Amino acid sequence: MCRAPKRRGAASSASLPLTGLSMLRSRRLTIEVRQRVPTWLRALIVLGALIVGLAICVGLLLGRGVELGSIYDEFVVFTFFQAAGISTVIVQSTPLVLVGLSAALAFRVNYWNIGIEGQFFMGVVGATLISIFDVGPESIRLVLMLAMALLFGGAWALPSAVLKIRLNVSEVITTLLFSYIAYYFVLNQVYGPWKDPKDKFPHSPQFDASEQLPLIGWQQVHYGIVVAGAAVVFVWWLVERSRFGIQSRFVGSSPRMALPIGLPVALITAASAVLSGSMAGAAGFVMATATEFRLTPAMAAGYGFSGIVIAFLAGNRPVATLIVAFLMGGLYVAGESMKVFYNLPDALVGLIQAIIVLSVTASEFFVRYRLRMAHYRGA
Predict the structure, then answer these.
(1) Which residues touch 149 (CB under 8 Å, ≥6 apart)?
(2) pLDDT in tens, 54-71
(3) Residue range 156-169: mean pLDDT, rounded
């Protein structure tokens, strides 16, 4: 039985659809690392992500019956263009600047300090010790409280750094566990020996007038902004102009190369961790002496997470940390205003804040990478 020969024309025509289908299948979405990111492109990507996040939040608020004009008034006009709103944002953002600097100092050397809240608490503990035992004359009481807050916050960060350097124990775990220890120590104190004898509530006695940061004379803005401003200037000089800053930058970018060329990697890491804890302690000092006027168990809630987000968005840069902290303070103030005036639940306000922060944070992916369709030719 003979077989009919194949016709070349028919074979080639039948293979055309398959070839076209294979060409379509050979196209792939690829991720490429951007070799250079201009400042204008970074700003454009972040702005686009912010617009997307705001659009989602506006949709949620419109679904709750809030008018579009009211959203604009609360999120923009009141928060950033009225004296009462701006002053409230400044007050809210002052401790955020300090916790942002705390996270940035540690992250620069790839030391992941997750225990900012614990160091915050211990800073308040140090300041409260000065108040309870009336250490020093009243004229320098605030200076002593700040010094003790810096000392206690830095000291609380040191054991985790030593464990990391000597035993290679993950600082993510140890700093987090030390936060729990600090929190339960505070609970022990405010339910025990430091419990306020006047109202019997679980908090320390109120600080005296000489132990409270005074107002600067405009709205409710206090001298905590001086502490935050001095911290920004100091950290900027430290990381941008000092020898330590150059060394820490090298340790953070290439730790395996830093040791062979003679850089004291262990010392730089420990110093960065201690400075990070001191900044968190300074944030606790500002919160205790300017807002709470005492030690309370809930005063540090959320500041650790906020500091990490601020440092990430700011790229661990001090001046950018100041700007991001101010904008995040505005976000918190706007959320609280919406909650009060429009009777929104806490969960919705928290969701709105999380969506905006997550949108801006996710923009970092598109800053570092770009997406493109690539064509792969088969054999």
Answers:
(1) 123, 124, 126, 127, 281, 282, 284, 285
(2) 899 889 888 888 888 877
(3) 95
Whether 208 has a pLDDT exceeding 50, the answer reads: yes
Contact 357, 50 (CB under 8 A): no
Q: Tokens in use for 44?
A: 């454009």
pLDDT in tens, 335-366: 888 887 778 888 888 888 888 888 888 888 88
Q: Specify whether the CB–CB gap between 213 and 222 falls below 8 A.
A: yes
CB 37 within 8 A of CB 368: yes
Fold of 67-343: ABC transporter involved in vitamin B12 uptake, BtuC (1.10.3470)
Contact 278, 154 (CB under 8 A): yes
Look over the chain and give the mean of its residue pLDDT values, rounded to a whole number: 87
- Residue 181: both structure tokens together: 């220890």
The interaxial angle of helices 141-167 and 171-190, nearest 10 deg, is 140
For residue range 255-291, list pLDDT tens digits in order.
Answer: 777 777 778 889 999 999 999 999 999 999 999 999 9
Quote the strand ranges of the chain, DSSP E.
27-33, 369-375
Structural tokens at position 276: 């990070």
Q: Domain limits of the chain? A: 67-343
Q: What gap in Å lies between CA 93 and CA 87, rounded to an integer?
A: 10
Q: How far is CA 8 from CA 11, 41, 84, 234, in A?
A: 5, 54, 83, 80
Q: How far is CA 236 from CA 53, 208, 252, in A?
A: 31, 34, 17
